């Protein structure tokens, strides 16, 4: 469990933001307009809804009851569900059952927040809309920019300008075609999905189409992985050490660990890490070729892989900033919230909606 907190305010003033993914449950608590707690726990949703129940127990332990829950999701994509619509309904029902009596608002992208019944009736707008919450939050702070949210499994590339999100796609299919959704992530991407071949001992070696290793193994071997962000078992269930990662990577090219020095396996990891970064950079270039952004509009880094955004910014000759710098929270909390960005975003957006409504009512 990854957790950061600064709980000082009463629970009835708090908004709980939830991002239900297929592999993690992310939660953020906002009180008086500031982020006061953040948690991320692993949740293998594809194995059953009971995994989500267990994740909730861990994620909400010790937190005060919220006054409102703001929900976004990508977990409806899990093959536990027959289709997205049934997944959206099941996840909404699960949250209602876990927090009975607490008002629930579901993020529906451009439609904003909806009540649970209305959200269940509009699953196409609710499904996988978490990226739009993060980008909308960034657009309220910066005049223009491009969100680069590198998570454990995917990367979102979302331009915004003049206070609004300027994405070409809305659905997963549209976003894949537009380059705005790239299925490459820091820890969970299968190495066989990064490249078809790699240079080994002076020759091009085809990679085995087996789930022997993941992207976490690459970044671990390179000494750039924060282990707190690798919350699932390794591909072989083995140790999360440099040697364990090298052993898994060796299998990808048909060898055993002892057949080469560690330097050779690090070199292979470096080449594959670069191949993954090039794939993300290709999507970024595609998005920038369409987006009408000022030359000085920065990339805004979020997700567990946000440390890579500096390199992406260098390649496209743009400045960059950490989403954490835009969030209302103490530095440590802001850093954690930038990793769990959609959960923090829906909590902050919902809290702002409540404040705006209260202000209008008082006039």
Keywords, separated by commas or semicolons:
single chain, 363 residues, alpha/beta, 7-stranded mixed beta sheet, 6-stranded mixed beta sheet, 20% strand, globular
Explain what the structure shows.
It is a single chain. Helix content is 38%, strand content 20%. α5 packs across α12. It is built from 12 helices and 15 strands. The longest helix is centred in the last third of the chain and has 29 residues, at 262-290. The radius of gyration is 20 Å and the shape is globular. Strands 1-4-3-2-5-6-7 form a 7-stranded mixed sheet, sandwiched between helices. Strands 8, 9, 10, 11, 14 and 15 form a 6-stranded mixed sheet that branches. It is of the alpha/beta class.
H/E element sequence: EEEEHEHEEHHHEEEHEEEHHHEHEHH
Total strands: the figure is 15
Question: What's the overall geometry?
Answer: globular
Strand fraction equals 15-25%
Sheet of most strands:
7 strands, mixed
SSE class: alpha/beta
Supply the number of helical segments.
Answer: 12
Q: Ends: how far apart? A: 44 Å
- Our Rg estimate from Cα atoms comes to 20 Å
Mean pLDDT: 94
In quaternary terms, these chains amount to single chain
Q: Which bin fits the share of residues in helices?
A: 25-40%
- For the largest sheet, list the strands in their spatial order: 1-4-3-2-5-6-7
Unreliable sequence segments: 5-11
